[in-house]
Amino acid sequence: MKKTILLLSLLLSFGFVFSQGSPDYGGGLKFNLNPEGTKYMRFIAWNQIWMRSSAMNPGTMIGDEAISKQEDIGLRRLRLLAYAQISPRYMIVTHIGINNQTFINGGASGSSGTGGYGNGKKPGLFFHDAWNEYAVVLPKEEKPFSLSMGAGLHYYMGLSRLTMSSTLNYMTIDAPIFNWPLIENSDQFARQIGIFAKGKYNRLEYRLSINKPFATNQVPTDVAEADLARAVDNNQNAKWSKAGYFEYQFFDKESNFLPFKVGSYLGTKKMFNVGAGFYTAPSSTKSSLNGVVEKHATNLFAGDVFLDLPIGNKEKKMAFTGYSVFYSYDFGPNYIRNIGIMNEGVVDPTFTGGRALAGPGNLQPMIGTGSIWYTQAGILLPNANEKPKVRIQPFAAYTYKNFDALDKASNQFDFGTNFFLDGHHAKITAQYSNRPVYTAADKIDSYKGEFLVQLQIYL
């Protein structure tokens, strides 16, 4: 009986996490394997469709055509997650999907040109998560401590709340990407294979993992001056990485049933959390000076604060959401990565003007040795009616990046609005973002803008 009550409470808390702002959703797509509902399987499916109008970096070509502006529509995420529990102690999680398919890229490995297997067609479905989990110490009301351990391809990668964020309930249109500092280099879409431990002690939540990073083999450019040495990802037979995140929850306690941290509760919870995390991996990058190759460790640290509170008159159901995080990144000397989400641009060989250091399309300096400060805030506006068809949440975000490889820091802004048709389960998000265009290490030539509209549905 106690086990049944415990399992049901876990299910209810998890269902609550995945139903922000939508009381009609309930337990979702859950299939009971016994009459009591203590053995079950649950599925979560979601699609995020993006429409964009983007100013391109100078020197960009798309489909053999020189271009300075681009409009398109693409598939940002198409995902299916399933998990099953036949005992309060055992759980299996599987998460598959695709990302970033456009009309001209994002297709399956080996696809090229046009036709049946053109560049943007038939993307390869792959695993995002696949792990087994065992509850060593079950959570109980009379005991403050809990502990679960698991192994596989997992998302318990430490560092920050955003590093382990759910993609279902962002306040902004997406994560800022630098919250996943290893993305698609020594990880598989923000995951590594390893062993993790998670649990709580009263209001303190902890997550720890030890992992085998995916192999990288970029060759560093040899330079004659130490100031010009630049680290690149090269871990070969990778050494074990270690990661952790600790968070104190002052008000309501969050579910840690799955690793995915909520971005905005829309006033359904009262949250004030302070967290800190790390990721470290020895001999993970290399640089070359006068023919001598040097290995460098990756040491990443972060501290963050999350606030999500109902505000004003209860009948109006207003809420404030705020999040701020500071990242200190060290990948080795002058390490830098340029990334653009669903970037369709390639280099225009005929362009004679000042090119962007980051490259063509919507590439920008995204991750590097140095520091990043990111802050977002938004307000869920009051109900206009007792049962409004649409809830509105304007928001803004600010990013400050200061990388060692660049002599000038950048300041970036995002402004947008969520239109909730059914909480996060059905919403439309519109957002304008800018990015810096460096034409030299000490010169930001301009800031380019991008207007995005997303349609999200998840069940």
From TrEMBL:
<keyword id="KW-0732">Signal</keyword>
<protein>
    <submittedName>
        <fullName>Short chain amide porin</fullName>
    </submittedName>
</protein>
<feature type="signal peptide">
    <location>
        <begin position="1"/>
        <end position="19"/>
    </location>
</feature>
